[in-house]
Structure formats: structure tokens, C-alpha cells
Amino acid sequence: MAVETLRVKVNQDVPRSVDEDNPADWKGSKRGEGCVIDFYTQMALEQRVFQVRAGSVSAPLVGDVLITDQKAEMAVEAPSGLTLMPITFNWCFNLSAATLFEVALKSRPWTTAITFTTQFTPLNLYIGGVGALSRAYVDAAGGVDVGANEDLTLDRLHYHWAQPIAAGAYRTTDTWEPIAPSALNNRAIAYVQIGADTTGPSYFATFQYIELLTVHLS
After folding, report:
1. pLDDT of 58
2. The model's pTM
3. What CATH number is given to the structural domain containing 168?
């Protein structure tokens, strides 16, 4: 029986590009280790990672007065045939006039039309990359209506932060990066809710996700 020897091409100093469907040498280091790109970097290079922004340091948005059923500050919708994978969510309170704060990231099957004031064009993390097929919405004070979302049989809770005690110190920023990202398909939505008691919190936030055609997954 013939024995095949696996060898890598020591070609790390000169990037190579070949046409579609043509074989290429496996890239290796000068020590012989194979070079393997991680999934998230590959997705970014394939122009599949998008970002939604809500507010900025100099121009923050104002959240809701308490998190309210149906009301969200940010939302992303996966149309039929598309699968979204939320991978990063960051928020920061710019002005904390109230005392009880809450931040949540959830997802659910699409059950009702999203109503909104402002539609946001997702930013491709590959600058100059293709436009998103998904749709995103951003609005202050719970201005993105995603429909009733307190159904424990439908809604997934991915991230939650709360400061339920009126007195005492609390953080003003946090970042969510899941170990196992969820997959939203078949007209699903992911949405962010940000609120506080008495006065809506002043904040800015970013939400990043991978966009894939469902036919490429199953």
C-alpha cells in the first residue's frame, strides 16, 4: 500500500491567489506547522460580518423607562433563506441619571412585522464590502417594536445585565462574546433592550453578527 506524505508549502512570505475550483498548496510556517485561519477572521475576509451601531460617544441615544414588552432599541431581522449568528454586543452608559438599569439581548422567530422609526444600514466590517441582505433597525426609547416577546417557548435570552439595587457602585459598560453563538434563521430576529427606572439611560452600543445563506448550511 502506497503511503502518502502530507507536506505544506513554506510560502508564508508571499500571499498567493488562485482561480476558483483550482487546487492550491497548503500554507505552512518555516517550522512546518500548517497555517489555519480562525472562523471569525475567515468570515470577515469573506465580507460576511456586519455591525449595527446605536449612538456614539458624543451623540448618545436615550433608552426606555424600564424594559418593556415589545419595545427594543436595536433589532436585526433575518429574511427567509438567511441565517444570522450574533457574535458581539457592547454597550456603554454615557449618562446614568436613574438608579435601576437593565440591558438584554434576545432572539425569537419572526411572528409579527417590526415597526420602527429609523432603519439602519448594517456596516460591513470589510471596508468597501458588500451590502447586507439582513435588515437592521435602531431607535431611542424603545422605538423599535418587535412584537410581544415574553414567550418562554419562543424567546431566547442570550445576554442580560441588571443593576437592581438602587444604592452602590455598578459598571457602565460591558461586552458579550458568546462561546457558542446562536443561529437565527427562517425569518428570525435578534433585538436589544436597554432601560432604567424613572429616566431612560443615555447610552451607545454596537451589535455584530455573521450573515450566511441558509442553503450553505443545511
Report:
1. 77
2. 0.86
3. 2.60.120
